[in-house]
Design goal:
By secondary structure, the chain is mainly alpha-helical. The protein is built from 11 helices and no strands.
Length: 234
């Protein structure tokens, strides 16, 4: 099997995992606030990524990282998971799951568009047509079929979902310039994001006893949305 075929398989498995997160987030938001979900999920995903680093025997690579590398990870961590997931979970809170997830999935289109000025990649005529068709479909879903009226059920939710696509695309474009080991770098990014998430939660929502249903949901998101799926996407 060549590398391209392997890439398709990994991508399809990742998408299959990510496809459950809309429902998982919506259910978990019944019990927890977005910051609470993110705190638990990021801690769980950091643990998952650490075990993957351990399993692949990359602890020596992790220990060789310098202060500059950790500073870079702090910047990446602010972008994703901190800002990206706070915004995305808020979008899920405001919109029906099927709307928020479909809009969020346009990150692949945003990635293509941002790669033009940032990576110097080219988009040919058929790709522009595909991009226009894809955004048209999203517009139909976001307006619940009222395409001509442009009547959005929750405009703020739509804006947040679209903003999340920009943050996500920027994160992966910047990662193309990261020369560190991908898995080790990813683990460091999540670990460095944890202090920001803890401070944000303390300053906004505070800490409280959490319903076990919400904790289970956040753990699921941490394992399958942020942990294993990130690894497979890499």
């Amino acid at each position: 099997m060549n590398n391209q075929s392997k890439a398709y398989i990994y991508a399809l498995i990742t998408v299959a995992l990510w496809s459950t997160i809309g429902s998982a987030s919506k259910i978990t938001l019944r019990y927890l606030q977005p910051a609470e979900i993110l705190l638990i999920a990021a801690a769980v995903s950091s643990s998952v990524l650490f075990f993957l680093v351990l399993f692949q025997r990359k602890i020596p690579v992790l220990l060789s990282m310098r202060g500059k590398d950790w500073l870079i990870s702090a910047g990446y961590g602010l972008l994703t998971p901190f800002a990206y997931y706070l915004i995305l979970l808020k979008a899920y809170d405001l919109l029906p799951a099927q709307q928020a997830q479909v809009i969020n999935y346009t990150w692949a289109i945003t990635l293509s568009l941002l790669s033009i000025p940032l990576l110097g990649q080219k988009v040919v005529g058929r790709q522009w047509l595909a991009i226009a068709l894809s955004y048209s479909g999203v517009l139909v879903i976001a307006t619940r079929g009222n395409l001509l009226s442009l009547n959005f059920e929750n405009p703020l939710g739509v804006v947040l979902a679209l903003l999340s696509t920009i943050l996500w695309a920027l994160y992966w474009i910047l990662n193309t310039r990261d020369r560190r080991d991908p898995l080790v770098g990813l683990f460091m990014n999540f670990v460095c994001a944890l202090p920001f998430i803890i401070i944000y939660t303390a300053l906004t929502k505070g800490f409280r006893p959490l319903p076990i249903e919400g904790v289970f949901g956040a753990v699921y998101i941490g394992v399958f949305e942020m942990g294993i799926s990130f690894f497979l996407w890499l």
